[in-house]
Amino acid sequence: MRLSASAVGTFLVLAATSTFQSAQAFTAVRGPLSTAATTSSAPSSPFLPTFSRVRQQASSSSSSTTSLSMSFSVGIVGATGAVGKEIRQCLEKREFPVSQLRIFGSERSAGKTMPTEKYGDIEVELFDVAKARECDVVFLAVSGDFALEHAEAICKGDDGAVVIDNSSAFRYKPEIPLVVPEINGKETKKSKLIANPNCTTAIGLMAIWPLIQKFGCKRVIMSTYQAASGAGQPGMDELQDGTRVYLEGGTPENSIFAYPLPFNVIPQIDKFQENGYTKEEMKVTWETRKICGLADDFPVSCSAVRIPTIRAHSEVIIMETEKPVDIKEAQKVLDEAPGVKLVDNPDELAYPMPITATGQYDVEVGRLRKSLVFGDYGIEFFVSGDQLLRGAALNAVLVGEEMVSNGSIKEKATA
């Protein structure tokens, strides 16, 4: 029987919305850090068990950049979209060294004022390549077509800006670095144009890479459960609006997703390829190989599914390893890895979930166990990570921080 009570419908829609806006309230109590000087902990929640295995890492993805003494002119193209908004907020929260923040938009947005917490009210400028080139670094949170048309022109020459592109436009070009800073940050020294990886890849690799380093790897098999946020703000809006319509007895409409997403799962993200995989699934294969420096034929397989959650992607990952796996060693490796939060206490029902990963910089990893398929030479685990942060905006800002640190971003001389 379909629910029809408006009170129930309102509660469920608001609950979904709260996952997007206020996930901090659901974060379980964390145990103490191994660093004695660090005493902060997340707020507890009446909905989740208290457990000692979960902790916030003192890592590059949870620290600020206050040690950076220089400051830079920073531009954002696409700052009104879901990822663009998060880039701006990451710049503010992480204290990226910004001397001037410039927001570029379309004719529809130009002239409007965007309020910011740290930089005051900023007037949106009509995008122009020449204006963008005046910046020291430009973050692109726009379509691949836009990036292909303008990115190289923005960064061309010694007087061009560094460009960090969130689209897929340049990810597979051999000469363009595809970067997750904790894995291959040194690649940022090779180009003024840097590609940000696909959200699914970035989240999964935060756990995969430390395990590759410890145990080696022969193959990776991944199944993903991806939130509506993967389709940006329109995707999140379609899920919330459709959920409300369904609970009120109507039939949800769909324009963003192939089918209505409320109370459904859709085993398709992006277009199908000739080999039967979708492009989203192949992105994981292509990008994992490139970022980790693996062979072009290294076996990586992914099945990607869209699920009716607002924000944060989850993944089941299976690795066949070169060395025998000791689960306690694997837990230790992940517990110490930058950008990772180990959430792995089955006795207290502690494991990664979208509701606790939402709004968090670190990727949650748990459910670690030896693989029944690969035996001692295999490990299976579950991850959840915020698609808009670790899978997009945060990674882009971390790339910028890496380039400031290694001198790849330079202040332009002023007259």
TrEMBL record:
Organism (species): Seminavis robusta
Reaction(s) the record says it catalyses: L-aspartate 4-semialdehyde + phosphate + NADP(+) = 4-phospho-L-aspartate + NADPH + H(+)
HAMAP family per the UniProt record, alphabetical: ASADH
Semialdehyde dehydrogenase NAD-binding domain ranges (all copies): 73-191
Pathway: Amino-acid biosynthesis; L-threonine biosynthesis; L-threonine from L-aspartate: step 2/5; Amino-acid biosynthesis; L-methionine biosynthesis via de novo pathway; L-homoserine from L-aspartate: step 2/3
SMART domains hit by this protein: Semialdhyde_dh
The protein's name: aspartate-semialdehyde dehydrogenase
Key words, A-Z: Amino-acid biosynthesis, Diaminopimelate biosynthesis, Lysine biosynthesis, Methionine biosynthesis, NADP, Oxidoreductase, Signal, Threonine biosynthesis
Residues the record marks as active site: C199 (acyl-thioester intermediate), H313 (proton acceptor)
GO molecular function, one term: aspartate-semialdehyde dehydrogenase activity
